[in-house]
Amino acid sequence: MLILILAIVSLYILDRANKVALIHSRISQLQVFTLTLIKSDNDFFDLDVYNVNYFKTRTSTALELRDSMNKRIQAEIRAVRQQTRNKGYEVDINLDAIDSTLSVYNDKFVALEALVYRKGFKDDGMEGKMRWHAHKLEEESAGPGLVNVLFLRRHEKDFFLRHDTVYRNTFNRAAVKVMRDMARFHGDSTEARTHMLEYQRLFNELVNIQSQIGLSNKDGLRRELNELTSALSNQYFLLSEYSLRQSVQAQQNARLFYIAMLTGAVFFSLISGLWISRRLSEPIARLSSLVRMSIVHKKPGPIDFNVRHAANEINALTAAFNILMHQTNAQLKEIQSKSKLLKRKNRQLKKLNRELDNFLYSTAHDLRSPLTSLLGLINIMRYDNQQENLVVYFDMMEKSIQRSDAFIAQIVSFSKNKRLLIKPEQLDLYQLVEEVFEGHSFPAGNGRLTREIVIQEVTPFYSDRNRVTILLNNLISNAIRYSDPGKEQSYIKLFLTVNELEATVEVRDNGIGIGPEHIDKIFDMFYRASTDSKGSGLGLFVFHETLKRLKGQVRVTSTPGEGSSFFIILPNYYKTLEVPTASVTEKKALYEAS
Ligand code: ADP
Q: Is the CB of 120 inside a 6 Å radius of any atom of ligand 1?
C-alpha cells in the first residue's frame, strides 16, 4: 500500500517537474518567435522601405516572416495556456500581459506599415506622385525661375535625407519664392502652378506621414514600437525568470523527494532486512537452544513448540525437529529409566552379594557353634560320671539345639518369603495373634511379664498368612527376648487396627530398648544391637524383607532402659479379592469364647 502511494506521489512529482520544464521551454520558444518577429519588423523598416518590389506588390519576405511568426506565437500562447490552466501556475498573468502588449505592438506595426506603404518610395505611392509633380515643375521652370525650384528640391531631399522638420519650413519658404518666380517669369502658367501646388501639398503630407512614422527611432510610431519592444522584453524577462524558477523549484522538489524516498527505501530495507533476519533466526536460535538442552545437557526440553511467522522451510524444519525431539526424549527417558533401574539393580546385587557373603560366613559359623557346644557337652558327659550332672548337660544340649533350630527356622522363613508368591486370604487376627504368642510358650498368668492385645477390625483383613505370621513372630519374640529383667513388671502390648485400605500394628514393650546409634542398622543382616544379644541377628532382617514383599512400612521408636515400639502398616487386600468373609462380630465372639 505504502509503495503504491509512493509510486503515485512520485509519478505526480515527476509529471509536474516535466510539465513545468515543458512550459519553460515553450516560453523560451515563444521568446525566440517574438524576437524573430521584432527582427523581421526591423528588417522591414531597414530594407523594405527602400524595396520597390514591396511598394508594387505590398508583400515582402519580412512581412511573410512576421505573419508566420505571429501565427506561431499565438499557437505557442494557446499551448502554454492549455498546460497552465487550472494547474496553479502563475504564468497566465504574465502571459496575458505579453499577449496584450503583442496585440498593441501588432496594431501599431500594422498602422506603421500602412503609413509606409502610403508614403511610397521613388516612383510609387505618395512619394512617386510628389516626385512626378516635382519633375514636371522642373520641366516647366526653365530659365531664371529654375534656381529656386532646384532650391526647393534641395530642401525636399534634405528632409528625406535628414528627417528634420526644419526643412519643411525652408521648403515652404522656398515654395513661396518659386510661386513668386512663376508669376514673374512665366506669367500665369497654370500648369506649372498646378504642379507646384501639388508638389507642395504632397511634400507637406509626406512630412506629416513621416512624422507619424517617426522622424527617428525616438519619435512617432517607431518610438512607440521601440517602447513596446522594451516592454515585451521586460515582460519576457519576468516570465522567463518566473518559469525558470518554477522549473528549478520543481526539479529540486523532485530531487528532494527522490533523495528522501531513496533514504527511506534504504532505511526501510535495512530495518526490514534486520527484522526478517531476526524473525528467521529466532526459531533457529530456539531450535538450537532446545537441541543444546536436550543433547548437551541431556535434559529433555519442551517439545511441540510452535514457531509463529516463520518461513515454510523453517516450519518444516520445526515439525521435523519436533518429531526428532519426541523420539529423542522418549529414547532419553527410556535410557534414563533403564540406567536408574540398572543402578538400582546393581546396588541390590552388590548388597545381595555382601549379604550372601555374610550369610555364608555367619550361617556356617552359627550352625557350627551349637554343634561344637554339643560335641563339647558330649565329651564332658563321657568323662563326668556324676548322674546328677546329666540333667544340667541335657538342658544345655537342648538349648543349643533350640538355638540351632530357631536359626534354621529363620533361614526357612527367609527362603519362603523369597520364593513363594503372595497369597492373600482373610485372616482371623485373634486366632493368629494367639497362635504367635503360644508359639513362644508365653507363660500365661506369669506375674512378671504381662501381655495386652487390642484388635479393632472394622473391615476384614486380607493378606498373606505365612508372611504376617513371620512379622508378628519376630516382633513378639524380640519383645519377649529383650524384656528388662531388672524391671518388676514387664509388658508386651499389641494394638491392631484394620480398615479397608490397611492394617496398622504396634508392638510395644518396656524392655531394654535400643540405642539411637543402632536404630538404623537393626534391619541389617546379622546385626545385633548389643553384645548381650541372645539371637542370631537375622530376625529383623527377615522381618524387613518380608515387610517389603507385602509392601508394608515400619517405624521404630525406642529409648534404652525404657522400651521399644515397632509400628507397622500393611496393605489390606480386601478390595482386590472377592473372598467370602465371616462377620467381624461373629469372629470376636468366637475368640472371646476360646
Ligand atoms: P536377634 O536374633 O539378635 O534378636 P534381630 O534381628 O531380631 O536379632 O534383632 C537385632 C537386634 O535388635 C537384636 O540383637 C537386639 O539387640 C535388638 N532388638 C530387637 N528387638 C528388640 C527389642 N524389642 N528390645 C530391645 N532390643 C531389640
A: no
Q: What percent of the chain has pLDDT over 90?
A: 44
C-alpha cell at 424: 492373600
Q: What is the mean pLDDT of residues 210-234?
A: 91
Ligand 1 pocket residue status of 514, Cβ below 6 Å: yes
Is the C-beta atom of 564 inside 6 A of ligand 1? Answer: yes
Residue carrying C-alpha cell 501639398: 201
Residue 300: pLDDT band with limits 50, 70, 90: low
Least confident of 80-84, 317-321, 497-501: 317-321
Give, using CA atoms, the residue closest to atom 25 of ligand 1: 513
**CA 196 vs CA 45, 185, 422, 458, 578: distances in Å:** 30, 14, 173, 174, 171
The mean pLDDT value for 274-297 works out to 74
Strand partners, 554: 568
- Whether residue 419 has pLDDT greater than 90: no
**CA–CA separation, 562 and 508 (whole Å):** 11
Question: Residue 585 pLDDT more than 70?
Answer: no
Q: Which of 478, 507, 509 to mutate to test the pocket of ligand 1 (most atoms within 8 A of CB)?
A: 478
Q: How far is the CA of 429 from the centre of ligand 1 (A)?
A: 24
Q: Are 17 and 250 in contact (CB under 8 A)?
A: yes
Burial classification of residue 327, based on how many CB atoms lie within 10 Å of its CB (0-12 exposed, 13-18 middle, 19 or more buried):
exposed
Cα 52 to the center of its chain, rounded Å: 90
Considering only residues 290 and 592, tell me which one the structure prediction assigns the higher pLDDT. Answer: 290
- Rounded to whole angstroms, how far apart are CA atoms 566 and 558? 8
Name the residue at shortest CA distance from atom 17 of ligand 1.
529
For the full predicted model, state whether its pTM sits above 0.70: no
CA–centroid distance, residue 455 to ligand 1 (Å):
25
C-alpha neighbours within 13 Å on the C-beta side of residue 213: 21
CA of 533 to the centre of ligand 1 (A): 7
| Top mean-pLDDT range of 109-113, 254-258, 529-533 | 109-113
The beta strands (E) that lie in 365-517 are given as 424-426, 449-457, 462-464, 490-498, 502-509
CB-count burial class (<10 Å; 0-12, 13-18, 19+) for 495: middle
- Please report how many Cα atoms fall inside a 13 Å half-sphere around the Cα of residue 310, on the Cβ side: 20
Quick one: 17 exposed, middle or buried, by C-beta within 10 A (0-12, 13-18, 19+)? buried
Q: Is 529 near ligand 1, meaning CB less than 6 Å away?
A: yes
Residue 222 near residue 112, CB atoms below 8 Å: yes
Matching residue, cell 501588432: 106
Distance 481 CA to ligand 1 centre (A): 8
Burial class (CB in 10 A: 0-12, 13-18, 19+), 14: middle
User: Other CB atoms closer than 10 Å to residue 266's CB: what's the count?
Assistant: 10
